[in-house]
Amino acid sequence: MALFDLHKRRINYLSISVTDRCNLRCLYCVPDRNGPYLPQKEILCYEEILRVVTFAVREGITKLRVTGGEPLIRRGVVDLIDRLHRIPGLVEIGLTTNGILLKEFARPLYAAGVRRINISLDTLDPERFRRITRQGEIEDVFAGIAAAEAEGFQPIKLNMVVMKGVNDDEIPAFVHLAREYPYHVRFIEFMPTGTGSDPRQQFLPAARILERVRAHAEITLLEPHRYEGPAVRYRIEGGKGGLGIISPVSNHFCDSCNRLRLTSDGRLRSCLFSDREIHLKPALRNGRSGEVVDRQLKILFQQALHAKPAGHRIGPDSPARLSRTMAGIGG
Ligand code: SAM
Question: Among 20, 28, 264, which is best to mutate for testing ligand 1, by the most ligand atoms less than 8 A from CB?
Fold first, then answer.
C-alpha cells in the first residue's frame, strides 16, 4: 500500500509526539513559563498510539520518528518503541531528543530497535546552553552523545538551530565536531514560530550559514538521499562525520515533503506550519470494534492527506502563527 496526497507526493513518514512536556525550555521553542500542558486524559495512551501506527504502516507509512516535547520523559516510552518496532512493515524508527536523559536510555533504546538518533544541541558552551535552554546542563547532553556513540547508533545527528548573535559564532566549532567525530551535524534555520526569540534579528539564512561553513572546511555536495530527509548534505574532506543544512525558511522543500505528524493529543497535522488538524481521538475512543475504527482511521488519514498544502509561505518576515508551540507539535 502507499499513501499519496493531492499533489502526488508519496507520504511514508510519520512523526509522533508522545508528550507535549519537556525538561528544557529552549528560548526559540517554548514560552518562559511552564505549561499549561495538556491534561493527561487528552494524551493518547500507548495502546492508542500503537493502534494508529499499526494502521498507518499497513497503509504505507514505513518510517517513524518519536519526538515530543521531550520523548524520554514519558514513562514507558522505551516499551512503546519496542512494540512499535515490531509492527510488520515498519522499516525504520528514529528518535529526536535533547539528549539530557540519553546516557540512561541509550542502551534500552538500542535494544528496542532505534538506530537513528537526532540530538538537538545548539551550543557547546555550558553557560550559553543554560541560557538557551533556560535550565539545562550541557554535561548531561555530552554524556548522552557519548553513550549513544558507544552503543552504536548510526547515524548520530546533532541538530543545531543557528541564531544570529546567539550561537552563530559556534558554526566553526560544530564543523570541527563533524570533522573529528562520527557525527552528522545539521545546521537548521531558525523558524519564526512566534515563540520567544526575535526572528527578524536572529534569522540567518542557509546561504550565509554555508558561507561560514566553507570558510572553515572543504566540503563537497552530496547527492540527495531518499532516506536523509530535508537536509542538503555535504561531505567534509578528511572528516569522520558529515554536514547538512536544513532551510525550511529560505528555501522550502515542500515539493519533497513526505510527512504527517501526530500530536500527543491525537491530531494529524499534514504540515508543520498549518494549524489544520484532523482529530483521531473520537474514532479511537468510541468503543467500536477494531474493524470500524480502522475504517474511520482510513477516512481521517485521507482527510489529512487532502488537507496537506502544496507548500507553506513562512519566511523571515512572515512568521507562522501557530496554535501550538514547536514542543507541542514535535518539531
Ligand atoms: N525535545 C526534543 C528535542 O529537543 O530534540 C524533541 C522536540 S523539539 C520540538 C524538536 C526540534 O525542533 C529540535 O531540534 C528543536 O531545536 C527544533 N525547533 C524547535 N523550535 C524551533 C524553531 N523555532 N526553529 C528551528 N527549530 C526549532
Answer: 28
| DSSP secondary structure letters along 19-84 | -S--S---TTTS-SS--PPPPGGGSPPHHHHHHHHHHHHHHT--EEEEESS-GGGSTTHHHHHHHH
- CA-118 nearest atom, ligand 1: 5
- Give pLDDT tens digits for 39-68: 999 999 999 999 999 999 999 999 999 999
The whole model's pTM is what? 0.96
Residue list, ligand 1 pocket, CB within 6 Å: 22, 28-29, 67-68, 70, 96-98, 120, 159, 161, 188, 190-191, 193, 326-327, 330-331
Domains of the chain: 13-329 (3.20.20.70)
